[in-house]
Write a structure and sequence with these properties.
The complex is a heterodimer of chains A (about 350) and B (about 550).
Chain A (H helix, E strand, L loop, with lengths): L4 H9 L5 H11 L1 H30 L4 H6 L5 H11 L5 H13 L13 H36 L3 H15 L2 H15 L15 H35 L2 H8 L4 H38 L5 H10 L3 H29 L1 H4 L1
Helix pairs in contact in A: 3-14, 7-8, 7-10, 7-12, 8-10, 9-10, 9-12, 10-12, 12-13, 12-14, 13-14
Chain B lengths: L14 H32 L9 E6 L18 H7 L4 E3 L5 E3 L2 E6 L6 E6 L13 H11 L13 E7 L3 E6 L6 H5 L11 H5 L14 E7 L3 E6 L13 E6 L3 H9 L5 E4 L1 H9 L3 E6 L1 E7 L13 H10 L2 H9 L3 E3 L21 H10 L6 E8 L9 H13 L3 E8 L2 H9 L5 E7 L3 H9 L13 H11 L5 H13 L3 E13 L3 E2 L5 E3 L2 E2 L10 E2 L3
Parallel strand pairs in B: 1-10, 1-11, 15-16
Antiparallel strand pairs in B: 2-3, 4-5, 5-7, 6-7, 8-9, 9-10, 11-18, 12-18, 13-17, 13-18, 14-18, 19-22, 20-21
Helix pairs in contact in B: 6-7, 8-10, 14-15
Classes of the chains: A mainly alpha (about 350), B alpha+beta (about 550).
Chain lengths: ~350, ~550
């Protein structure tokens, strides 16, 4: 951004603040750092709110872990004994405070049902969910943007086809799609595995194969959404006055599409992709159960059903952190894309 | 007048270059994936998975073990597939209600009151950590088992003491006779799955690893998802070990399970009636046995919450009003049997399975005689949808409600969000009746659960003197089967329970795996225990 000579002189003559203050000022003036600081500040109350709400919601649903464990073997005596040993006889606020106290020391407790460490369970399953969400986000961003650009340039029939496909994409449930993909690619063609996960460290190729069907099932609706969003954003930009002026000035069509069109449409596309990534994080519950993937989504499903509070809390905190990270990345990319606006 | 947009200062970002580059790289990756997938698939299509001696056996389970620690199991026999791999039980459940030697080579009561039960252990047996299985180790395990307060704690009843004599003799001294003690020690509900002294001293270790005397030991696990077992080098009968690795994979969706089997990912799978025809059409063997009975249980036998339920005529009328064959055929196809009696391992009476034939006219007659000729309404607790045993329990409840409405009985179905919540509703006394599914167990277990004056489901502490007398007689009898059958007749005649059908449990098996069989008590009625995976062996491909 061009600045006037007067402004330069004024800044040179301005009184210099103390070094710490100056450092702080320089840091917060850096838009990237400002984004990170803002997100970190919001993270703490967000984590508290989410952990408390998830605790409250699970606690208020009928039953508890002691009842779940005892099942038909329930007697009042055994229930009271087990509740006491699991700490479920304490008032809710005390149970929550105990959890917070241990969590602040990095101890997320053990599963009430299986006895396994919550931290260990989450660290085992996190790579699976991350693989799924990152790959699905990448696929939906690339494919969606490509479809959006194509249909914006070929308006008319292509545009209507994209709109129709977008509606179909939104309407098809990931669960159903996943089941059909398994039948076709795993059972009939034997191209890809029906279930399970192979870590990338074990075999990158097998990892990719184990992710192919779940990623497709998870990302279809998102591809449709990103495609529609990209198309609408591109059309807005391509029909704007300054693009018409650029054309009149003789700039090449390729330059207009990518340098002006896509560049100016990118901020809204990136924001939308970020939202989709968060939505897909929620979608992992269904997809992981369908494909028997040992991720956080299936862990959350089992924990909520079993009233396994420590696991529910741990997974809720983990998901919240992932959402914070996704939103921070989106903000940083937004800043990078729009330096003039951000500064 | 249009002004040209000012040229930005500094280096120009070549958006089109970077984005086009991304698009090209992505396209190349996609093609590479397809080639690799097809290439990998072509290779795998040529090589059929064949289970052979020393190979890997992969088994699909619908639910994960509730805990690796047998003392913390909340799923009972549903945990047996995993538990029996690593833990040799004290007694082994065999067919026809018999028990064979496990860690114990011989056993029996040492007094007429049947309160002292002695076991003599096999000599030379070791746990997977190399330590010997001794009487002291067994005593420590049996003592420890109750301390986590798990679902199956105290299943022996009150234990006065456990004594040992020498290195291999253990005697359990009970406060009162427990006619189901052999069942309890067979490990179906985990009590007999003895862990080593070292593990008992550090019980938290049992949640992450196994330490039994079984043929396999847990090598690695992703809890809730997959469990890998390798042979226990200290197992006392190496010839009984048929695979170099056994992998248990948890796949909760029945459709995905069948597809994993069809695609060759797993060799044996816990199946369901909904996918049985697809499995059969695909050429898989099916091992099946009746393992449960589902229906309505009455917790208000005195009629305090629902006065009508305290009337035997009303209870019998409800039984006559249900068209069990039609409901069974509609919901289970050929993988279930209609039943009017509770199904037990030792008290099954063949003639009583159709004791209440479908007779709406008789049902109306009985209701009229009881004073409910103009109609009756009450609430039943249930859980909608498919139950944990894979049966369409919610649909069963709806079907029963339809049958009952035809005879003037209106069932208000109160669907709870989970089976746990439903149990809570029944056991809290809010409703006097609920639907449930029960795994097949000895008669003594059901008596203790449903009918004994102290039974959890007998909220009113209802007393049936003749039923109690039959139980007391069977508890100390050397041949109690006739007494158990008498108890089944008494319970069925008095209509204390309203069974509807007995679903079969199904296991789908690849042609090259043999030995997959349920222990059977009678005809196609199982013994409430799944096939023992350690007994599977490679067959001919």
């Amino acid at each position: 951004m061009a600045v006037s000579a007067h402004e330069v002189e004024a800044s040179q003559n301005a009184p210099r603040p103390s070094s710490l203050y100056g450092l702080g000022l320089r840091i917060t003036r850096n838009p990237f750092v400002a984004v990170i600081v803002r997100r970190l500040v919001v993270a703490i109350p967000l984590l508290i709110a989410v952990s408390f709400l998830s605790f409250l919601l699970v606690s208020l649903t009928p039953g508890n872990a002691a009842r779940q464990i005892l099942g038909l073997q329930f007697t009042q005596t055994s229930y009271e004994q087990l509740s006491k040993s699991l700490g479920l006889n304490l008032p809710l606020y005390q149970q929550y405070w105990e959890w917070v106290r241990h969590a602040l020391n990095g101890n997320f407790g053990t599963s009430l049902i299986s006895g396994q460490g919550v931290g260990q369970s989450i660290s085992q399953r996190l790579p699976v969910t991350l693989s799924l969400v990152i790959l699905a986000t990448f696929v939906s961003a690339v494919a969606g943007v490509a479809i959006g650009i194509f249909s914006s340039l070929r308006d008319g029939v292509a545009g209507r086809v994209v709109d129709a496909l977008a509606m179909v994409g939104f309407a098809i449930p990931a669960f159903w799609l996943g089941a059909e993909l398994i039948v076709l690619f795993a059972v009939k063609l034997h191209w890809l595995p029906a279930t399970g996960y192979v870590s990338i460290g074990q075999s990158p190729l097998q990892w990719l194969k184990s992710m192919a069907l779940p990623v497709t099932a998870l990302s279809l609706a998102s591809i449709a959404g990103v495609g529609k969003m990209a198309r609408d954003a591109m059309l807005d930009v391509l029909h704007s006055e300054h693009v018409r002026a650029s054309r009149a000035a003789g700039l090449s069509e390729r330059s207009i599409i990518f340098r002006h069109g896509l560049k100016n449409a990118s901020p809204s596309i990136v924001t939308f992709v970020g939202l989709q990534a968060v939505l897909m994080l929620g979608g992992t519950v269904f997809v992981e159960n369908l494909f028997a993937l040992p991720g956080l989504g299936s862990l959350a499903d089992t924990a909520v059903t079993g009233h396994d509070l420590p696991v529910v809390q741990g997974v809720a905190v983990c998901f919240t952190l992932l959402v914070i990270v996704i939103n921070t990345i989106v903000d940083l990319v937004y800043v990078w894309l729009t330096p003039r606006v951000s500064s | 007048m249009l002004k040209a947009r000012p040229v930005r200062q500094g280096p120009v970002r070549r958006w089109w270059t970077s984005l086009a580059g991304v698009a090209v790289v992505s396209s190349v990756c996609a093609v590479a994936v397809l080639i690799a997938a097809y290439g990998g698939a072509a290779a795998s299509a040529k090589t059929k998975t064949t289970a052979k001696s020393g190979g890997t056996l992969t088994v699909g389970l619908t639910t994960a073990p509730s805990s690796l620690n047998p003392a913390k199991s909340s799923a009972g026999s549903a945990d047996d597939p995993a538990d029996y791999l690593a833990y040799e039980p004290l007694l082994v459940l065999e067919s026809k209600g018999k028990f064979g030697p496990g860690l114990a080579s011989s056993w029996g009561y040492t007094n007429a009151a049947h309160t002292n039960f002695k076991m003599v252990l096999q000599k030379g047996v070791k746990f997977s950590d190399g330590t010997p299985v001794t009487a002291d180790a067994v005593k420590e395990w049996l003592t420890y088992f109750n301390s986590p307060g798990g679902a199956f704690a105290n299943q022996l009843g009150k234990v006065d003491s456990i004594t040992t004599e020498g290195r291999y003799n253990v005697t359990i001294h009970l406060a009162a006779a427990n006619p189901g003690i052999e069942w309890d020690l067979s490990g179906v509900n985990e009590l007999g799955d003895v862990a080593s002294t070292k593990a008992v001293a550090d019980p938290s270790s049992l949640s992450t690893r196994t330490d039994g005397a079984g043929p396999y030991v847990l090598k690695s696990a992703v809890p809730g998802s997959s469990y890998t077992y390798v042979p226990n080098k200290h197992y006392f009968d190496p010839s009984a070990i048929h695979y170099s690795k056994i992998v248990l994979k948890v796949i909760s969706s029945p459709t995905t399970m069948e597809e994993a089997l069809a695609s060759g990912q797993i060799d044996v799978a816990e199946g369901s009636a909904s996918t049985a025809s697809a499995a059969k059409a695909a050429g898989f063997k099916i091992a099946d046995a009746v393992e449960d009975w589902d229906g309505l249980v009455i917790s208000d036998l005195s009629g305090k919450v629902v006065p009508a339920l305290g009337n035997e005529d009303v209870r019998q009328a409800l039984n006559y009003a249900i068209d069990r064959p039609a409901i069974t055929k509609a919901l289970l196809g050929s993988y279930g049997d209609p039943t009017s009696e509770w199904i037990t391992t030792d008290g099954y009476v063949p003639g009583y399975q159709n004791h209440y034939s479908y007779d709406p006219a008789k049902a109306k007659q009985l209701l009229a005689a009881a004073g409910y000729g103009s109609g009756l309404t009450f609430t039943v607790a249930s859980t909608a949808g498919t139950w944990a045993d894979g049966t369409p329990g919610g649909d069963m409840t709806e079907a029963v409600a339809q049958n009952l409405s035809a005879v003037g009985v209106t069932l208000n179905i109160e669907n709870e969000p989970s089976a746990t919540a439903e149990d809570g509703a029944i056991l809290s006394g809010q409703v006097g009746i609920g639907t449930s599914g029960f795994g097949i167990d000895p008669t003594a277990i059901y008596y203790g659960l449903l009918l004994a004056p102290t039974a959890a489901f007998n909220l009113d502490k209802y007393v049936d003197a003749s039923a109690n007398a039959l139980y007391a007689k069977a508890a100390t009898s050397a041949h109690p089967d006739a007494d158990w059958e008498g108890l089944t007749r008494q319970v069925t005649n008095a209509a204390y329970v309203i069974p509807v059908y007995a679903p079969e449990s199904l296991w789908f098996v690849k042609k090259d795996v043999d030995g997959v069989a349920f222990p059977i008590s009678n005809g196609n009625i199982g013994e409430g225990a799944p096939p023992v995976i350690a007994n599977f062996y490679p067959g001919k491909s």
